[in-house]
Each structure stands twice: as C-alpha cells, then as structure tokens.
Amino acid sequence: MRPNRVRQLLASGQPVLNGWLLLPDSLSAELMSHAGFDSLTVDMQHGMIDFQSALSMLTAISTTQTTPLVRVPWLDPGLVMKTLDAGAYGVICPMINSRQQAQQFVAATRYAPTGNRSFGPLRAALYAGDDYALHANDTVLNLAMIETAQALDKIDDILSVEGLDAIYIGPADLSLSMKGKAVHDTMEGDIGDAIRHILARAKAHNVFAGTHTSSTQFALKMLELGFRFVTCCNDTRLIAAGASNAVREMRGGLKQ
Amino acid sequence: MRPNRVRQLLASGQPVLNGWLLLPDSLSAELMSHAGFDSLTVDMQHGMIDFQSALSMLTAISTTQTTPLVRVPWLDPGLVMKTLDAGAYGVICPMINSRQQAQQFVAATRYAPTGNRSFGPLRAALYAGDDYALHANDTVLNLAMIETAQALDKIDDILSVEGLDAIYIGPADLSLSMKGKAVHDTMEGDIGDAIRHILARAKAHNVFAGTHTSSTQFALKMLELGFRFVTCCNDTRLIAAGASNAVREMRGGLKQ
Amino acid sequence: MRPNRVRQLLASGQPVLNGWLLLPDSLSAELMSHAGFDSLTVDMQHGMIDFQSALSMLTAISTTQTTPLVRVPWLDPGLVMKTLDAGAYGVICPMINSRQQAQQFVAATRYAPTGNRSFGPLRAALYAGDDYALHANDTVLNLAMIETAQALDKIDDILSVEGLDAIYIGPADLSLSMKGKAVHDTMEGDIGDAIRHILARAKAHNVFAGTHTSSTQFALKMLELGFRFVTCCNDTRLIAAGASNAVREMRGGLKQ
Amino acid sequence: MRPNRVRQLLASGQPVLNGWLLLPDSLSAELMSHAGFDSLTVDMQHGMIDFQSALSMLTAISTTQTTPLVRVPWLDPGLVMKTLDAGAYGVICPMINSRQQAQQFVAATRYAPTGNRSFGPLRAALYAGDDYALHANDTVLNLAMIETAQALDKIDDILSVEGLDAIYIGPADLSLSMKGKAVHDTMEGDIGDAIRHILARAKAHNVFAGTHTSSTQFALKMLELGFRFVTCCNDTRLIAAGASNAVREMRGGLKQ
Amino acid sequence: MRPNRVRQLLASGQPVLNGWLLLPDSLSAELMSHAGFDSLTVDMQHGMIDFQSALSMLTAISTTQTTPLVRVPWLDPGLVMKTLDAGAYGVICPMINSRQQAQQFVAATRYAPTGNRSFGPLRAALYAGDDYALHANDTVLNLAMIETAQALDKIDDILSVEGLDAIYIGPADLSLSMKGKAVHDTMEGDIGDAIRHILARAKAHNVFAGTHTSSTQFALKMLELGFRFVTCCNDTRLIAAGASNAVREMRGGLKQ
Amino acid sequence: MRPNRVRQLLASGQPVLNGWLLLPDSLSAELMSHAGFDSLTVDMQHGMIDFQSALSMLTAISTTQTTPLVRVPWLDPGLVMKTLDAGAYGVICPMINSRQQAQQFVAATRYAPTGNRSFGPLRAALYAGDDYALHANDTVLNLAMIETAQALDKIDDILSVEGLDAIYIGPADLSLSMKGKAVHDTMEGDIGDAIRHILARAKAHNVFAGTHTSSTQFALKMLELGFRFVTCCNDTRLIAAGASNAVREMRGGLKQ
D210-226: string of b/e by CB count within 10 Å (b at 16+)? Predict the structure, then answer.
C-alpha cells in the first residue's frame, strides 16, 4: 500500500504543511498540489464542494506526491466512509464535542475489529494499491476538530479515545463558541490559553495536534509552539487577495 | 440595455484593467469579480473551460459590476455567437491573420445589416435587458488578436475592417511566430518594435489597442505606452504562485 | 451587509411572494428570478438538486434582487450550515416535529452565542458583504415546516422556541399524515381546521407563518387569511402545464 | 431499427408538432417529453447547451415516445455526426446559404455511399437498435435552415440537393437579414411573401417544410398554409411567461 | 402506475438478476441496462456517485425495462426519500443492525399511514405515471442490509418489522465484522453458517432474501440455496478485468 | 519534460498497446489506466465526451504511467490545440483526406517555426514539467486517420507531409467508404489489400502506422503484419459484453 506521507512525517517528528481547498475544481487542486505542500485538504464543510467535485479533486491531487485529505461537513459516518473509498488518506471531522462523538468518528475510519467502516475501497485501491484493505487501518488518518467550549471541557475524554490519531483546532469556531466572536491567528487572552491547554493535553495523551491558520507567519509560530500539522493558506484567499493586490497596484500606478 | 462599461471607459479615454480566467469554476470567477477589475475574460482557448463552465462563470461575473468577456478558442462563428447569447459583452478572437478573417469575425459579432450574427439572445437579454437586440451592435465589443508574423504583415488590412472595435496583442504567440520563442513582458528587440508598430497603426486607424501581460508592473508600462486595455493577472498564476510562496516561506522559516 | 428583503417585508407587514425551484439548472433559476418574485426557494428535498447545482442556482438568483432561500432535504445541521455558506438568506427545514428538533434547526442557523453554526461564510460573504459575520444572525431566516400530525400536536412547544423566525406549512404532507392522503389547495374539513389552528397559534407566539400552494388563486386566499409568506408556483409545473397546454391547443386546432 | 416517428408522420401527410429546448437540463427535457409533442429539439445554437448536457437531455427524451432532434450551432460536420452518434434522430442546421453548404450538411448526416458520416453510432445503437447502421440513412432526418436573404436567393439550388429531407425556416433571422429587424409570427409584407415563396418552392421540389413560431395560434396558421413541421413553444418561455403571469396575478390580487 | 418488475418476479417465485453500478456515468448505466438484467442498483455507498449523477443514471436506466434501484450510503431518511422521488423503484440500505433502525428505514420508504415519507414524487411520477402516490407503498421495495455480527444477533428482531420487503446480505462486511477479514463468494466456515442461518430465518418470516456475489457461478449457487435476488457483476470489475485480460492476451501473444 | 512513452516505444521498435475510452467518466478512465496499456485514447469523436469530461479523464490517466492521447471529432485546429493544452501527449485526427488537410493538422500540433500552435500549455505543463514549451514539438505525437477511399488515393501526398508522426487506419470507415459497409477485423478482399497498401507506403515514407481493431487476436495479427500501434479494446465493449455474458451465464444456469 502506498504509504501515508503525512503519517510518516508525523511519526518521524517532522512538521506537516497542509494547504486548503475551497473551490470545487480539479485544475485548481492540481495547481495547488504542484506547490509543494505535504498535504492538501478538500474542505467539504465550508468549501463549495460536494462529493462529485471532491472525487475529481482527489484524483487531481493523486497525480502528485501530495497527500489527499478531506474535511467532511459533519459527523456523518456514511460520508466519512465514502470519502475514504474515494481515496482520501485522512479525514478531518468538525465539531467533535464528546467522547461518544469521537468514538463514532474513529470507528467510521477503521475496518473491524477496531471500527465499523463498511468494505468497498473502490478508488482508494486504485490510488493506494491492491493491498489497501490489509493496511488501511494503519495508514488512514482521522483528525477530530476541537472547536467549541464544550469540547474544551471534555478534552481529556476526547483525547483518550482509542484509535484517535490527531486533533485539529479550529480557532475561529473555538473563539466564536467561547467569546461570541471568530478571531484568527492570535494567541492572546482566553483563546490563546485554550489553545495552549489543548496542545498540552494532546501531548500528554500522545495524540498529534494540528491547527488552522491564515498566514505563513502564524503557521510557523504554531509549529514552534509544538503543533505538528499546520494549515497556512487556501486557494480562495490566494485568488481573492492576489487579484485585489493586482488591481490595487494597477490603480495606484495609474494615479501617479 | 445595460451599458458596456469597458466600451464607456475606452470612449472616455480611461484605461481598462482586465483580469483573466483559466479555471473552469464559477466561484473562482466570482471571487475574481469582487477584486475590482473593470472586466474579466473567460479564456476558452488556453483555459480549461468549455461552454457549460463558461456559462456558469459568466453568470457569476454578472453578480457584480465587472464586465464579462470571452476569448473563444478559434475563429468559429457558431461559438462566437453562442458566447454572446450567453451574455458575454465582448469576444476576443485568437489568430486573426488576414482581412478576410477579421471581416468574418466582426460579422459574427453583429446582427444584420452590419453582420450575420444569428438571432436568439437568451441569457444575454437577462443580463442586458429586454432591449438587447436594439443596442447589441453598439454595445458588444470585438477584439481581434494580432499574434503572428503574418498578421503583422497585414496589419493595415486588418485594422481597416469596418466595425472592428479593438485589437489585442498576444506577445507570447507573436514572438513565437516571429522568432521561434515565446517571451513575455518585454519591449526589447524585434518583438518590442513589432508591438510599437502595431500600436502606432492601431492609433492611425482609430482602433483601440490592448495587450496581454503577466505582471502589474509591465501592464502599467504598456498603459504608459498608449495601450488602453491591459490584462495583468490570471487566476491560475495567483493560485500557483501564491501557494508556492506560502510553501517557500514555511520551508524557509522551518530551516531557521 | 446586504439586507434580507424577505425579512424587511415581513417586518413591515407586507406579504412575501415566493417561487419554487425544482430543476437543477442555473439558467432556469435566473429566468425565474427575473419574473418579480420576492424570493425563490431552491428545493433540495423534492427537487432534483444537490449542493453543486444549488450553488450555481444561488449564484444565478444573486444576479437579481430576488432573495435566495433553500429547502434542505432533512434536518441535517451540516447541510443547513453549508447552504448558508453558499449564500442562502433563509433555510426551510422539513418535518420539524418536536421542540428539540426545532431547537437543533434554529441553532444550526445561528452563530454563537445563540447557536452552534460553524464559521466559514465563503460565498455568503461575496453575496452579502464583508460584514456578514456581524449581522448574519439578524439577517438569515429560518423557517420550520409544520407538516405532520405529530407537529400539530406539539405546535406550542415548537412555536415557543427562542429564535425561530417562521413556520412554513406543507399542506400535502400534513394531510397525508393526518388523513392518509395528500391534498392541495383546500381549507375544507380537518386539514382546513388544522391550518387555521397553526396560523392562530403562530400569531399568538409572534412567529411569521407561511404556506405552500399550487395556484395564485389559493395563494391569494391564504394571504387574506393572514399568511405572510406564500409560495404560488414552481418551475416544473410551469414547464409541464405550459407544454401540455400548447400541445392541447395545437391538437384542438388541428381537429377543426 | 426503431422507426423515426417524425419521418412516418411526414410520409403519411400528418403534421409534426415540435417543442424546443433551451435549458441545459435533463429533467426539464423529460418533463417536456411527457407533454405530448411529436418531437423535441435540443437547441445547441441559441440554447445554453453543450454536448454533455445535450447527451443527458437526449437520454431523458428517450424514456418516452417523443422523437429527439438537435439543432447544431453551426455547419460543423464533426458535431453533426457526434449528435447523431448520441442518438439524435434528426439534425437542424442553421444558416444554410448555398448549394455547397447544403451538400456538405446532407453528407454529414449520411453514411457512404450517399454521404461521408463517420462510423461509430455508440448511444444511437442503444436507442435505435443493433441494426442502426443498416437503416440510419433512411431514418435520420436532416433539416436545413433557410434564414437569410442569401438563402432566399439560392432557394432552388438548395432545395435540389439530393438527399435533403426538409427545410426549416427561421423567420426571425430571415427578417433580420432581409429588413434589419427580427420579427416573429407574421405573414405580412416582404417577410410573408418570402415565407410563402420558400414554402411553394419546397413543395415543388418535394422537400418537407417546417418553420419556427412562438405561439400555438401562429403555429396552427402555418400548418394551414402547408407547413408540415412546426415548433410552437419552448421551455424558457414557458418558465419565464408562466412565472411572470403568476407574479402579476398575485400582485393584482393583492391590490384589490 | 408502472409495475415493479422486481416485485412481480419475487411474487411469482422467479429469481431476480441484479447488476451493480459504481461509475458515476449515465452512458455506462445505459449500456448495462441493455444487457438484460432484471434490475440495476446505483450504488451511492461505495460507488463514486452522488445525487446528481444518480439522477442521470436513473434516467438512463429508465430508457429500458430494467428496474432501477439505489443503495444509499447510510440510513439517512432524507436521502432515502430523495432517491425515491428521483424514480428509484427500490432502496437498499446498508448497516441495518437493530429493530429500531429497520423500522426507521421502512418508514422512510412508505407514505402515511404506514410510514413518514414526505410527499413530492417529481421524477418518480414521470417514470411511474400520474397515479404514483396511490400505489407507491405497494410498489416500491425496501431492502435492509444484514452485514454485521450485531445484525446477525438481532436477525429475528429485524425480520419481524412490519413492512420490510427484503433483506440483502453483504458477505464482505459480514465476514469483516465477524472475523476481521472481508471475504467473497464462500459458504465455508462461520460465514457460510451465518448466511445459511439468515436465509433460513428470512424464509421463516416470509421476507425475501438477496445477496451480493462477485461471479455468475457463485450467484447461481446462491439461487440454488434459496436466495431470490442476486447481484452477480458490476461495471467497474467488467472494465478493470476486461481491460487487464486484453492487455495480458496482447503481452502474451507478443512474447510468442 | 516527461518523455512520451509511446514515442519512445515507437522509436525503439517496440509495439504500442492502446486502449480506447468512450465513456465520459474519469473513474472509468482511471480503471483502464491501471490495466497496463501503453496508452489510452480519449475519443471525442464517437465517444460521448466533450472537453470538460476529457479534461477530467486526462487528469485521471495522469495518475499512472499510461500515455494520454485524444481523438478529436474533426479537423478543428482550435480543439486540437486545446486538448494538447489539457495534457494530451498525442492527437488522432479523423478523416484526413488530402495533403492540405494533413498539413493543417500537423501545423496545429507544433509551435512555430514548424507549425502554428498557439502558446498557453496550462495543464500540459503541470503534467509534463516546466520545460514543456522547449520540448513539446519533439514530444507530442500527431496521428492522421486514413479512413476513406479519397485518402487511399492520396496516400503518398499525405505521407510525405513534413512532421507527420504517424497514420492510424480506421478500417470501419475505410470499408464503408470503399464498399458501402463498415467491417471490422478482416484482411480479406479489397479492404485487406487497401490496408496492406497503406502499411507498405507508410513504411516507405518512414511514418509509423497504427490501426483500430476490436479484439486482441486481430490486434496481435496486425502487429505481426508490421503495425506498430494497435488499439485492441474499449471501455464500452468491456462493459456491454461483460454484462451480457454475465446475464447469459445466469440465465443459462437457471435453465438447467
């Protein structure tokens, strides 16, 4: 089976640089996968992407060495399993708020006896190899999002779930849930304390920790703090900011 | 009929900033159209875009004030007419190399008596208004690409075609045709001379001149030289370069 | 943030005329949004429409002043949130049968502290403006469908849920659930009594009430009765009935 | 091979009622094909429809007894042949203005020895039966559009082309070409004279004549005049007009 | 209403030959439906197929006499109902492990008073006829998958659910759940005993039993054992195995 | 630049085994590319495939070592260039009947100075590498189809065109054109003589020769005769024949 490079990097103590895909388009995904990220996440939650688009994007990422991940929109076991069948090598699940939800999520990513994933790895076997079924449980990653005050409260319950590979902090939703306002890229105040606490507990439980950022500077800072998996940019911001900059430069130049 | 803002800008002596779309995706098109360009061109020639994708992109651009243009893949009158029916307010046609080709192109963008465009402006009338047919001939723009040694030779023949609104220089193809090598963003040597010559002849014929560039700096320089319509960035480069930069910054930061 | 015209009409005591979309096609949606409805609902339950089609339809509606709404297929919080991220200004949720279901639905449409909607308004911010997050809770509408005998029973429990904007009666399902037969456009008998009762209770709770009809005549009658939001026609019936009429007229004319 | 009902109707002297499809959607096509038309034309010229959409629409029409036709965007032999391979039982080609163009069009719809259609009837054989190749030349219809002053001039040249099944008048383009204005549904003045002349010449050459109308009344009138194939309504007008009527009735009712 | 041929075959004691669709493509579905199967199942669980693709495939199957079925990805009542609205004549639901799950599934496939299916049979009525609502409860089939150790334990609880038409054994998942390894096409050992037991209990409860196989030989053996509905081949295996065979024959021939 | 394995095999005297794709689906293309063919051809002529589908299929083939080729529907230079931009490593063009057509086709596949291909290799550069433009003229293959009596007549004119890489015989169309009947897989009679003649002339001109067959047996025979590039199977036949065989075996087994 094709190894999961993200898992290898995590195991060997190296950081994982993840890119984020929100556009429902395979060519954009292919361009992103030529940029050198270790992994790319197809975001089916806030991205404008459904299964058919996700499939074509996973295929496009598969033309390179970048590891394909998916964020599902919700704890929906059928869709977790279906994106794995489509060749995702890891699934990020939003809004894991309790031990029971974490167990249900982990189970959906593992075949028996350690889970209840249904058998039928169609495109997954094309991507991974014919021995997919033998090694999938040790290869595929699950990442539970910690992003609510409720989850913060239950952090040890969640982290102690057998088979959980990693947690992934969503700072915007976490701060929204804690303080009623979504903030990005800050370690100040209560949200900073919460993030440090989650990170410390993850280390204590030997669970990898990742987090979402919106700049390379902050992503580097998060790696320094001990995060092992960081997202530092997404396709829509690159387009929107790049295009605005180009227009600003042009308008500025014209004024002179 | 909704006026063509690009035509208005040209008529009033103001520059037109055009963005370029190569990804077959409506959300990306919508993001680009929020950046402030005067117009956006859906490139059906080198972009990975066919009619159905172009339609959804034209619709997305229509949610803003940005003027929607299309580049067709070839001098195919049926497709020129069909993209106009879909609501394009201008068509750029590649590889116009002779007076006869220029005439055929112009005719495809005009209803009788000045052309032979077939009648049936379906989505165009939704975008433009019910009086589309009355004003389309005076509203819709045609831009003939000058991008071969052959066209350079016949430049006055082409520019004197009745009804031609503008020419659009493709420097990569022009240099490829003249010197066997595609170059970008240069006014040096033979290619620079050729571009200056085409621009001068366009002015002499009272035909607007536009050109393709790949940086805001060079686009500004082209405006200074007298071009009135410049393309300065495209969606795929924004994604590809932005993503590569992000990875480079991260890798660089990690090494320290 | 772009105001929600449906909310404004409701607040100012004016009726809301809603159209219904069942075809998975953006051009048809755009045609409907040029007809003058106050709002259009993309029906992802009984319409043949999934997320990618819904996205292109919401984009098409956004080219006009018509307010875009979505009916989700089921109480699936992930999908409720995703359609809001795609720019829906209101969500109709079928089969709300208990206080707990109504609470779960309302929470999915509101950011903390009043709900648990996850943060990431991608296309929504393009449509609404950059201050979307600040005003979304006061702008976006939720409409809970009352359409079972069970819901009729629990009507006060449901209507007293904090944050519920409106209810929407589905007479076909309600009559099917009460009497084993789906009927349309009638105020006779038990179904009429039930509709009058729901309307009266909604007024008592200061919750707006809407209903589904299949003719303009009956829709007008419902407005007279006190409903504030009425659906009076859908795209598939217009096509199917219009086409049948045309054929009938032709066959009839031929016989003479 | 499944017989071509339109050809049978024409052969037996009965009128053919044709409906027109402009929306790129298979469900809408299926709804239209349940209305009772003898044939439906997928309009790839002014409709917002490309090949992949046309394929799904032809499939949808094939679930009923309605005969599937296609109008191609231009005299493009490759696309004429491809739509036949997709199962179209007839092709309407716009802008046939000379004997040579008519010959090229007819040839594209016939296998050797009477034409040069390339062999490979993939979906066509699923629709028609395994003996498709044996009978296609006698089954599939070609309809050349007469819609310019130029074509009017050459009408006998065009009508005398061996193998031409029918002509189809496009009154909007014909009047646009003759008088500089697109008109519909009129037999007044020069355009009326031209239509009568074309019809008379078609009869003289034993070629079936059809025409495009936009109302059942005018379509019936055209059948009385001797046309054998009439189009009387299209999907977009049904939606647009039906929706506008519904809104008008509602607004009118509210005012009372 | 168009009768359900699979139900008729089951009622008259005849075996049902089912084919399986994993490719998201309508033409492939149409090819399969010309092969002579009694029914075809669009697999939305392990197939790479979402709703929009499923709709186009159901339409393609509808061009023939083959009965269209769908396997949903999970016990999601909204999607069960939506695939029925799209014209599926039967739904297979995976992972039914308890009486309560079986009841919820059956209810989603039946209108009141025997279930809670929501009313709105859009394409279903096109396929089935205008009297769909009257007869759907007696026509549409539900098939609950028995494929876990847990379900084996509760087999009598599940089989005694009122309104359950059939069970469908998934041997791969069943063996995976029982023994930690997915096996196909075997009646040996514990898995063979389990299958025989489920079949015997189904007969005792007068519930039809079907099963999944991967060869015609084993499918025939299962019919001999008393199964009434067997799947014997799928589209992806036909392509993958057929292509590999062709290459092997070519490489072999070249070596000689 | 990624080398063209088909060109390498041809150069080194080894046979090329080509598979054929007619289904507009990327997963099917990916399955085929795992079977071991040297190349796969996306057939945009008789396959039900347009550009957007072709793009997703070329991407899917790119996940493997199989070389991606495209057959365009007609000698349309714009589409020849666009499929190359999408990453095709070779283009097969149907119906090349004269020296002029062969020249126009070859020119469309080559950048200046040897051709007139327009510059803009978007996805091609992702697939091939950043030095695509430098080596494309020596890497990309053009294959002209010889498939009419007219082409047979002009065979030396066509074969002597500078830059033509290969010819590809279409026996069905050739026999249809010569004898009025499409035959497959025969070397008998006139058609056999014609094929032998074309092959001999190709050798004399040092142009590679390929041919279309419908069985591995006949493909092997053609390789023995001296053909260097053979197509031996396609996706639709694998599905159609495989499915029919499965049904036949099942029905046969049931009868016993």
Answer: bbbbbebebbbbbbeee
pLDDT in tens, E141-151: 999 999 999 99
Q: Does E51 touch chain C (CB under 8 A)?
A: yes
Among the residues of chain B, which ranges form H helices? 5-11, 26-33, 51-61, 77-85, 99-108, 122-128, 132-139, 149-153, 155-159, 171-179, 189-204, 216-225, 235-255
CB atoms closer than 10 angstroms to residue B116: 21
Mark residue C41 as left, alpha or beta (left: phi above 0; alpha: psi -120 to 50; beta: remaining). beta
- Rounded Cα gap, residues D118 and D137, in angstroms: 12
Q: 3-state DSSP call for residue B239?
A: helix
d(CA E201, CA E156): 7
Q: Is C74 on the interface with A (CB under 8 A)?
A: no
Q: What count of Cα atoms within 13 Å lies in the side-chain half-sphere of residue C185?
A: 12
List pLDDT tens digits, range F123-141.
999 999 999 999 999 999 9
Q: Does F236 touch chain B (CB under 8 A)?
A: no
Contact yes or no for A145/A138 (Cβ under 8 A): no
Q: What's the per-residue H, E or C state across chain D? A: CCCCHHHHHHHCCCCEEEEEECCCCHHHHHHHHCCCCCEEEEECCCCCCCHHHHHHHHHHHCCCCCEEEEECCCCCHHHHHHHHHCCCCEEEECCCCCHHHHHHHHHHCCCCCCCCCCCCCHHHHHHHCCCHHHHHHHHCEEEEEECCHHHHHCHHHHHCCCCCCEEEECHHHHHHHHHCCCCCCCCCHHHHHHHHHHHHHHHHCCCEEEEECCCHHHHHHHHHHCCCEEEEEEHHHHHHHHHHHHHHHHHHHHHC
Joined together, the tokens standing for residue C57 give 């339809």
| Spatial distance between the Cα atoms of C75 and C31, rounded to a whole number of angstroms | 29
Grouping H, G, I as helix, E, B as strand and the rest as coil, residue B27 is helix
For E54, phi and psi rounded to 5 degrees? -60, -40
pLDDT tens digits, C66-116:
999 999 999 999 999 999 999 999 999 999 999 999 999 999 999 999 999
Residue F209 carries which DSSP code?
E
H-helix or E-strand spanning residue E154: none
Q: Can you read off the two tokens belonging to residue B70?
A: 């299309």
> Which residues 130-169 in chain E show a CB within 8 A of chain A?
147-148
Residue of chain D minimizing CA distance to C253: D220
Put simply, whether the predicted model's pTM sits higher than 0.90 gets the answer: yes
Q: Would you call F28 helix, strand, or coil by DSSP?
A: helix
Q: What is the chain C residue with the closest CA to B62? A: C63
Q: C135 catalytic, yes or no? A: no
Helix/strand/coil percent split, chain E, to 5: 50, 15, 35
Cβ contact, residue pair D112, F177, below 8 Å: yes
Average pLDDT, chain B: 95
Of B51, B77, B119, the CB nearest to D173: B119
* Tokens matching residue C180: 């084993």
CA-based nearest residue to B243, from C94, A33, D22, F94: A33
* Residue from D62, D81, D82 to probe the interface with F (highest F Cβ count within 10 Å): D82
Which tokens belong to D37?
A: 């038309």
Does residue E136 carry a pLDDT above 80? Answer: yes
Q: Which of A25, A31, A51, A62 is most worth mutating to test chain F (most F CB atoms within 10 A of its CB)?
A: A62
Q: Give residue limits of the domains in chain B.
A: 5-255
In tens, the pLDDT along A184-236 reads: 999 999 999 999 999 999 999 999 999 999 999 999 999 999 999 999 999 99
Fold adopted by C5-255: TIM Barrel (3.20.20)
Helices F189-204, F171-179: crossing angle, 10 deg rounding: 120
Contacts of E121 (CB under 8 A, 6+ apart): C46, E84, E85, E128, E132, E133, E136
